[in-house]
Amino acid sequence: MADNEKHPVELDPEVEKNLPAPLANAIKEGKVPADVLKHSHDADEAMKAFAGNEGQVIELSEADNKRILRIIDWNLIPIMCIVYGLNFLDKTTLSYASIMGLIEDINLVNDDYQWLGSMFYFGYIAWEYPTSRLLQILPIGKYSAACVIAWGLVLSCFAAVENFGGAVAIRFLLGLCESAVTPGFALITSQWYTKREQGLRTGIWFSFNGVAQIVGGCLAYGIARGAASTGSAIAPWKIVFLVTGLLTMAMGVIFLFVVPDNQLNARWLKKEDRILAIERIRVNNQGVGNKHFKMYQLLEALKDPLTWGITFYALVADIPNGGITNFFSQLITSFGYTAEQSLLYGTPGGAVEIITLVGCGYLGDKFHNRILVSSSGLILAMLGVALIVGLPLDNNGGRLGGYYLTQASATPFVAFLSLISTNVGICLLDLAFIYWYCKRQNKKKAAIRAQPGYVKLENQEFLDLTDRENPEFIYTL
């Protein structure tokens, strides 16, 4: 019997009623491989939008596509940019505070400050898996908003700490609250935008790290100068935490009302436009979300070399990144500048990050090659590190310029977010491996689609198949 011959299957009525109609029909007609049948017992949330419409053609004109994209951009991107900027600003407040009297006021000694920097990431790691699961099973817009409000409250409380123990507790809780932000924003972006649109949008909201560095440096400088000239009722570093924390809480409330859980409950989309908003991301072959945990999908991810390639990159790249985030103010003072000057002189690094992230995001989408384009930022960062280490100690301007170049290092990580997002030369090898692996998998999928008898199911994009199960899924390079 030929391999491509169809084998009709009898379905138990109890099983059939829990399957999407297109998948149930395909099973009975023998159009779907058995390994897919065994696992794809429930579909993506997007299938709800098409319930009762099987067989009907939903046409999305180019004009409607552009119109809906504009609506999505105006409602999602501004709030995501501001909140993500605050996310970075909240982490850098410790660096600003370190040269504004924090160390002396709460009696930090020896390696206490280093532990404060690390404690944020202990909280982040501890809650990363639970928060990723909660992002899946809870309404993503509401849960993300709750996390934003919670981290703003925790950050404000840092102004009340009086000793190392209290500061450690706050930093741990801050990492716990903020662990939902980056994965949540990556999910929201993939939920609303096509693959060709995701690179630029991810680059835009992530670039507000740079905006936060500019605004935060100016804010801290203004507070420090004002307190020095006129005095203040509380320590200047406490004002920094209160301002950023309260502002974050306010933005969290706005986020709650603006960002929907998915296209089906977006207040700012008409009912008919909600269907079209889902239809326009059909090309992603990813859907908009499924709330059920599937062990086989976890095991598949753990066996996937791509998973470990991205994990390895994040590990080796974020070691120096975490150090720079917590110590950049002290790094600049080591170049021979005063504490107040370091607050202001750190801001151009934010401009470098904005330009490289948005530029690489745009060019990566334009040339359909985010990985290779993003590696240019990593090369700039390597040059920056070389300048800091190699230039004479009295060349303050050159070493400061080297620090600015290191701020381009985020471009590959952001590229990975939109694809999913000392050790840097290792990172370039890892980028090359990920590029090769994705290209190889795309060739294999093309061969499957070219086989005689291959059938693409109706609404296959929304059946919650993994990238390996779905021959229509194409890895973005």
TrEMBL record:
> One GO term of the cellular component aspect?
membrane
Entries under SUPFAM superfamilies matching the protein: MFS general substrate transporter (SSF103473)
Q: How does it sit in the membrane?
A: Multi-pass membrane protein
Family matches, as PROSITE patterns: MFS
The keyword Cell division appears for this protein? no
Location in the cell? Membrane
Query: Which residue intervals define the domain Major facilitator superfamily (MFS) profile in the entry?
Result: 76-477
Q: Which GO terms describe its molecular function?
A: transmembrane transporter activity
- Tell me where the transmembrane regions lie: 143-161, 167-190, 202-223, 235-259, 371-393, 413-438
Could you tell me the keywords of this UniProt record?
Answer: Membrane, Transmembrane, Transmembrane helix, Transport
Provide the family line.
Answer: Belongs to the major facilitator superfamily. Allantoate permease family.
- This chain belongs to which protein, by name? Allantoate permease
Native organism: Saxophila tyrrhenica
